[in-house]
């Protein structure tokens, strides 16, 4: 220890290794096993059936109704179950089944697309979780109005997305072992779609949630690196590069170094490349903000809700998850993930409002607020990505502004580009992935607002519109002719209440979106 510990004093961290080791132990979670089968399972004590019409029962549900001598139909009426999309009716001890879950699929807009099926799977996970912890369930895949090839794979994927809990700090772990049998015609195709593709995306989402939920005390820059490295161990065609403080300073990344300077936990730049295509093929660059805790720095945040700033690394976490998914499912594309990692702390070493930082690109930035730190670490990271990897497209993703969160809340992440056509393309990616984005503008005036009297630019403008000003700072570091997508996920990364595919807390937003972009770019 160099100095006495305290808010405004810097000490040399000596306990790092111990805490890294403890995060390595996996987050224990109730286990779910998926089986794709053609025939019914004798051991199933739970049955799940779909209904698209509550008056005229069809398929598996009609059969069960017969077996129950019409009891099911009576119960449907008694409970006013209308089979509308996502509605559920959970019955006990009817038709010889301990537990029968009926899930409505009636979608007025017509066909069920992939995210619809995934949402149904998530609904089932949510509904069954509240009943017995250990169970064996048959999900009857019929009555589904869809043209998707293997609907059961998407249902299992949605189930797995929703099936998540973070209990490593709980004395009592959730320990249930459930078996989910997807009873379907094309069982082997579905099994392969799930086990060699969608499952990896779900694992990427869970990885992102783990990283974003872990308290800041344990999830500092080097711990993030260690955790992600462990996850990528044995994954093929992966190359991992970690820049430490010395490399960062040597490269002239004064913005990333500056933000990290106030913390005893040094910053890092984690670079993970996946090579799934020819070496000379330009990669897709994914850059994620990785602030392991955002106190605001000397421009200190107020206490209310500050604890949630442990998840200010959600962008970097999503990038790690998306690269993981692409590599595991062996997509034919080159993707490089860049994760600038820093802890934004107030200390005697911290940067001050009014300070000027030199970036790797050479553009100087005057600090208006040390709380506008995300754009600073992204500035150096996007420049490094372009200079070292010459990408064909660059996407950056960040919990960047309260402004984006206020405008769009939980429903959409903000997408900002230099050309609106690209934003509309991203809305399509959103629809296909189940993670939606909505465009916000980037106007020449936003660049005017970040002109500084003493440096090239400043890190925040006069105030409004915050999300666009933040994007303008990052845009300053991106070549104008490079297709560039800026995602502000400050509103969507953390859920106050669960949704179909995620319990409350970190939803790992962005893994599914970027995974879809990877698929589109690979074609
Ligand atoms: N990490 C925050 C943004 C944030 C806010 C994320 C709420 C999630 C929920 C970011 O670093 C920040 O503090 N942004 C400031 C920028 C301002 C000082 C220009 C903001 O939005 O208030
Ligand atoms: Mn901040
Ligand atoms: Zn932040």
Description:
With 523 residues, this protein is of the alpha/beta class. It contains 16 helices and 20 strands. The strands form 4 sheets. Strands 7, 8, 9, 10, 11, 14, 15, 16 and 18 form a 9-stranded mixed sheet that branches. A 6-stranded mixed sheet has the order 1-6-5-2-4-3, with helices on both faces. The longest helix has 27 residues, at 187-213. The structure holds ligand BES, manganese (II) ion (MN) and zinc ion. Zinc ion binds at residues 291, 294, 312, 373-374.
Task: Write a compact overview of the structure shown.
This protein is an alpha/beta fold. It has 16 helices and 20 strands.
Number of separate domains: 2
- Distinct small-molecule ligands in the complex: ligand BES, manganese (II) ion, zinc ion
- Radius of gyration over alpha carbons? 24 Å
- Under CATH, the homologous superfamily of the largest domain reads Zn peptidases
Helix content: 25-40%
Mean pLDDT: 94
Total number of helices = 16
Per CATH, which architecture of the largest domain?
3-Layer(aba) Sandwich
- Major pleated sheet: 9 strands, mixed
CATH fold label of the largest domain: Aminopeptidase
Q: What is the overall shape?
A: elongated
Structural class designation:
alpha/beta
**First-last Cα distance:** 54 Å
CATH class of the largest domain: Alpha Beta
